[in-house]
Structure formats: structure tokens, C-alpha cells
Amino acid sequence: MYSSQHAAISIVASSVLVYALSPITVFGSVVPAVAVVACATALGVLIDLDHFLIARVKTGNWNAVRFCLSHPSAAVADQGRIFDRGDVGALSRLLSHLVLAGVLVPAVALASTGLAVVIGVVLYVHVVCDVAWDIRRFRREAVPSPDEDPHTLR
């Protein structure tokens, strides 16, 4: 999915949780609801920065980062141009997201259980939406590359 779509679902998910949960506190101080939604939305989008590290490991170069630095509008308006096919891969991306969420949520829980719940749900929704997006994409493509084929483990 693209960043704008992740931002939209993150705003909805975090807003619902902020409304449903009692006030979120961090180390005993109440955090304004808008700040919780902003934080969760930022994490729901910025977790995708791991794609650049995955692409670096897989390709051995920083071409995707260089492309974004030389074409900053593509990072927002034309994200389909950033990575070449196979630079990231569905399974690598999903695994990275799960590892990051598995580290981040417990770390945040040390400061705030409520905030950890919001962040955990937002990241969960992010991964579920990515899986749904990938299923739809795999069905549209006649023959996925080995890196994109969910039956090929690497």
C-alpha cells in the first residue's frame, strides 16, 4: 500500500481507539488525543522506511534512497517508481514489519500500556492491509517473480 492509504487507515484506527479507551497517559501524564493519533499515524506510515533497508540488503546499493533524494515528490506522489521489482519483496517486508512491531510495542508498553495498545493495533492494521494488498496484486499478476511468490521461501 502507499503512504497516503496507510495514513488514512492509521488515522481511523487510532481515532477509534482514542475515543474508546480512557485517556492515554505516558509516565503518568495525560497525552492529548490529537497527539496520540498523530504519533500512531506517523508510526503507521514511517514503519515503511524499513523498505529502504531491505532494498539495500537485497540489491547491495542505496539506489532507492538516492532516487527519493533526487526526486522528493516521488516519495509522496509516485511511490511506485521508488523500488524495482524484487528490491523489497512481500515476505521480507512483512517479516520486517512484524519484527519491528514486536520490538516497538513492548518497549512503548514500559511507558504507557494505552499507547502501546494504540500503536500495536495501528501496526497490526498496517500489516493486515499490506497482506490484503499483496493478495490482490498477486491475483492480478500472471506470474509473480520468485521473490514475490508466496510459495517460494528465501
Give the tags.
about 150 residues, mainly alpha, two-stranded antiparallel sheet, 7 helices, 2 strands, about 65% helix, elongated
Describe the model.
Helix 1 packs antiparallel against helix 2 and helix 2 (33-46) runs parallel beside helix 7 (113-140). This protein has helices spanning 3-20, 33-46, 50-59, 63-70, 74-77, 90-109, 113-140; strands spanning 25-26, 29-30. The mean pLDDT is 90. A two-stranded antiparallel sheet has the order 1-2. With 154 residues, the protein is mainly α. Keywords: Membrane, Transmembrane, Transmembrane helix. The chain crosses the membrane at residues 7-24, 30-49.
| Biggest β-sheet strands, sense, barrel | 2 strands, antiparallel
Query: Which oligomeric state applies?
Result: single chain
What is the overall pLDDT average?
90
- The number of domains is 1
What strand line-up does the widest sheet have?
Answer: 1-2
Order of H and E elements: HEEHHHHHH
Q: Percentage of helical residues?
A: 55-70%
Q: Would you identify the regions where 5 or more consecutive residues have pLDDT less than 50? A: none
Global Rg: 17 Å
DSSP strand tally: 2
* Structural classification: mainly alpha
Form type? elongated
